[in-house]
Amino acid sequence: MTILITGGAGYIGSHCCVAFLEAGHDVVVIDNLSNAHPECIERIAEITGKKVAFEEVDIRDQAAVERVLRKHQCSAVIHFAGLKAVGESTKDPLAYYDNNVVGTHRLLSAMSNCGVRQMIFSSSATVYGEPQFLPITEKHPLNAVNPYGRTKLIIEDMLRDIATSNPAWKFSILRYFNPVGAHKSGMIGEDPLGIPNNLMPFIAQVAAGRREQLSVFGNDYDTRDGTGVRDYIHVVDLVAGHLRAYEALASRETPSNCFVVNLGTGAGYSVLEMVSAFERASNKQIPCVTAPRRNGDVAEIYADISTALEVFDWKAENDLDAMCRDTWNWVCKNPRGYEGR
Ligand code: NAD
Ligand code: WQD
């Protein structure tokens, strides 16, 4: 039985392929390469010593997805494919509803036609909106405040409705906090196109001399040093959570046929703490300037991780120093990311 990994040539998907291949599973990747480089597939094969089945397919192409599901006799899907930039989603919401919502609808329709009824879905802490209490439990009210977040919520609702309609479907909805870091080999990692939107890749590019300085978006939040606090999680831990989610789905030891789990560490770090940790890991100075708050940012958010521990018997193992060390190793070995991007 093979697991279909959509978006498996992307940042988190590629790490997930490595984890599943190393755990002895067969995988097939589909990706339209809109935010990925085919070299990544070669690197996954090099790390694991296993051949990786790859098909350049868009999830919106239902017939092509059905063909892949049948050809590889897939039994489950791990669904990463989609667009993920909050700012871009406010400028081009149609692209987000098309790729994320329409794409997932077509993928689910293909699965239904092929009798594949298990999915692990990449959701996001962004669905919680402004925290009403901390740490954030899975029962925290949902209030996405941008088109990207709303696509994730709509997909979550679609999965809940399908699960209710037919108990044969099984869904694990994983709400990621802030994934960072890279595989310890330094062969795969996050390779943003253009100016990075997120903190960690931006800091890494400043350390590498590709950018002059970091703009710290706001230093007057009600946090311990005035800068935004987030729950950063090492991508290798994050994908280990997917492996546990898959094992739980497959063994039916789940609380229901559609359940939600936060994936974070439970600890929050401020922007300035991230800068200091990266300076330690890289032995480089990160020049910073204070800039206005970024629209839509919250002061502080971090996960309650007790459900992950209870349901998956899983918790993150890597600390902030490991996250920075592994990011720096990836950047040093691939200063321009995957070649040709
Ligand atoms: P990524 O952009 O690196 O990976 C997504 C992959 O999907 C890319 O390889 C892209 O080429 C592919 N893709 C996009 N649209 C597609 C389509 N229509 N058909 C086929 N392939 C398509 O992003 P990532 O950081 O690896 O994120 C993976 C998932 O996790 C996304 O769904 C994202 O929303 C979610 N997520 C990410 C974060 C984060 O901070 N990275 C946080 C929470 C949730
Ligand atoms: C972290 C902190 C910024 C860049 C985003 C998405 C979320 C999820 C993860 C997909 C904040 C500050 C950042 C910079 C800065 N993605 N910052 N200077 O905003 O928590 O979450 O990525 O689902 O949906 O919203 O992460 O890395 O952008 O920001 O000061 O150049 O760093 O203000 O406090 P965020 P981030």
TrEMBL record:
Q: Which domain of life is it from?
A: Bacteria
Query: What Enzyme Commission number does this protein have?
Result: 5.1.3.2
> What SUPFAM superfamilies does this protein's entry cite?
NAD(P)-binding Rossmann-fold domains (SSF51735)
The pathway entry for this protein reads as: Carbohydrate metabolism; galactose metabolism
Where the record annotates domain NAD(P)-binding, the positions are: 4-327
Sorted keywords for this record are: Carbohydrate metabolism, Isomerase, NAD
Q: Which reaction does it catalyse?
A: UDP-alpha-D-glucose = UDP-alpha-D-galactose
**The keyword NAD is annotated on this UniProt entry:** yes
Q: Which GO terms describe its molecular function?
A: UDP-glucose 4-epimerase activity
Give me the Gene Ontology terms describing cellular component: cytosol
- Gene3D superfamilies xref list: NAD(P)-binding Rossmann-like Domain, UDP-galactose 4-epimerase, domain 1
Per the entry, which co-factors are needed?
Answer: NAD(+)
Q: What is this protein called?
A: UDP-glucose 4-epimerase
The beginning of the lineage is:
Bacteria, Pseudomonadati, Pseudomonadota, Alphaproteobacteria, Hyphomicrobiales
Q: Which gene encodes it?
A: galE
